[in-house]
Design a protein that fits this description.
Radius of gyration: 20 Å
Number of strands: 10
Helix content: 25-40%
Shape: globular
Order of helices and strands: EEHHEEHHEEEEEEHH
Structural class: alpha+beta
Strand order of the largest sheet: 4-3-10-9-6-5
Distance between the termini: 55 Å
Number of helices: 6
Length: 214
């Protein structure tokens, strides 16, 4: 079994009323994962340049999974098929994921997290649609993603599209492919592809709570 995680007192971490401020560097130094954080981030960037398995399928482990807020988990074959069917580069030739805040998770030292703010101009067909491109410049909200590696440096898991602030951008608070579809007026007619809307029950609870506060 893996060794127990180090205790805050061993790492010089500060306990506060709302929780502990972690010493990330100390936690990562205590990790037994054979790939160091700098090497793992370098590996992440190399795989990202190869479009996370799309250019080089060998970057993905045989037991690979993708999981988004709605889509997934998808196995390796399903994931690659989905990526190729989206073909976002044809619809948004200037597509830029704008990736930053790349770091290794101190709790899962084989996992690299990153933030992205995708932008792109709709000048080509989206997912085979024959509709005339809108020419809209889309700006998605900031969203988190992660790439997890095994000890051989293969990707075992990718997550993405987890929006951090739905008020940002012009895609209805939606990220990833759903954000692009909504932004150009081609959203699928399902709740998951629409901007967030409070349910009737939630609105009712808020209403009753406001009556009690008054």
């Amino acid at each position: 079994p893996p060794p127990p995680p180090p205790q805050p007192s061993m790492l010089g971490e500060e306990r506060m009323s709302f929780g502990t401020i972690l010493n990330e560097e100390a936690r990562l130094r205590a990790s037994s994962f054979p790939i160091s954080p700098p090497e793992l981030i370098y590996r992440f960037k190399e795989c990202f340049r190869r479009e996370l398995g799309l250019v080089n399928e060998a970057d993905l482990a045989d037991d690979f999974e993708f999981c988004g807020p709605v889509v997934g988990p998808l196995g390796k074959g399903e994931y690659l098929t989905a990526l190729r069917s989206f073909d976002l580069k044809s619809a948004f030739p200037d597509l830029d994921g704008q990736v930053y805040n790349i770091h290794v998770d101190p709790f899962e030292p084989n996992r690299v997290w990153y933030t992205s703010r995708p932008v792109g101009t709709h000048t080509g067909p989206l997912m085979g649609s024959k509709k005339t491109p809108t020419g809209r410049r889309l700006e998605q909200p900031p969203q988190m993603g992660s790439v997890t590696f095994n000890e051989q440096g293969k990707i075992t898991q990718i997550t993405g599209g987890y929006v951090m602030d739905r008020r940002v951008g012009n895609t209805g608070g939606l990220g990833a492919v759903f954000g692009f579809l909504y932004g150009v007026g081609q959203a699928l007619p399902i709740p998951e592809c629409q901007p967030y809307k409070k349910s009737f029950r939630f609105r009712l609870i808020n209403f009753l709570a406001s009556l009690r506060s008054n």
